[in-house]
């Protein structure tokens, strides 16, 4: 399942990038329904590489839980942030059925009239008989909800006036 999620913000890409890489944004945008642990961070020139363990607290619907043999999904998220191009490449390494779940994509910030737009594009594939499509839709719904919440937090944190 391919997806595209876009949000507009009333700021420059530079202000967007600086704000989204602030620890306060990270704390507020994750919310209380997910646990995260930073496993690794390193710099390679203008690229920052991060690996995080992400453990949503929300239970899977019963049918999906039976299909994957667990009541929750957890994963390691690997992201390569290009701090000059305001873009990233990311992938998710699932703890549950890692050979049957593939998820990854890109994110970029572009100039638009009145500010900037964050565009996330990617693909979710869950190769589990009978419930794979439902799990893909569930993951996409959670991803959309998470990025909608993060966009609301970011809008509140964007500095007003000259930057």
Q: What would your notes on this structure say?
A:
There is one protein chain. By secondary structure, this protein is α+β, with helices and mostly antiparallel strands. The chain is 30% helix and 42% strand. The chain is built from 4 helices and 7 strands. It has helices spanning 13-20, 23-30, 62-68, 132-157; strands spanning 2-9, 34-44, 47-56, 75-82, 87-94, 101-112, 115-126. The chain has a 7-stranded antiparallel beta sheet with strand order 1-7-6-5-4-3-2, with helices on one face. Helix 2 (23-30) crosses helix 4. It is globular. The model has no long low-confidence stretch (mean pLDDT 89).
Count up the domains: 1
The third-level CATH topology is Alpha-D-Glucose-1,6-Bisphosphate, Chain A, domain 4
Largest sheet: 7 strands, antiparallel
Q: Average pLDDT, to the nearest integer?
A: 89
Number of helices: 4
| Morphology | globular
Number of strands: 7
Query: Rounded to an integer, what's the Rg over CA atoms?
Result: 16 Å
Lateral strand order in the biggest sheet: 1-7-6-5-4-3-2
């Amino acid at each position: 399942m391919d997806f595209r999620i876009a949000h507009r913000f009333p700021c420059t890409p530079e202000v967007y990038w600086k704000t989204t890489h602030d620890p306060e944004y990270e704390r507020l945008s994750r919310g209380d329904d997910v646990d995260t642990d930073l496993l690794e961070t390193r710099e390679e020139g203008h690229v920052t590489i991060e690996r995080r363990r992400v453990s949503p607290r929300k239970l899977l619907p019963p049918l999906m839980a039976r299909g994957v043999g667990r009541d929750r999904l957890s994963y390691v998220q690997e992201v390569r942030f290009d701090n000059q191009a305001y873009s990233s490449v990311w992938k998710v390494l699932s703890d549950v059925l890692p050979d049957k779940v593939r998820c990854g994509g890109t994110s970029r910030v572009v100039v638009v009239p009145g500010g900037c737009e964050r565009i996330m594009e990617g693909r979710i594939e869950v190769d589990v008989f009978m419930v794979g499509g439902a799990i893909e839709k569930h993951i996409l719904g959670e991803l959309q909800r998470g990025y909608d919440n993060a966009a609301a937090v970011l809008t509140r944190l964007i500095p007003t006036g000259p930057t």
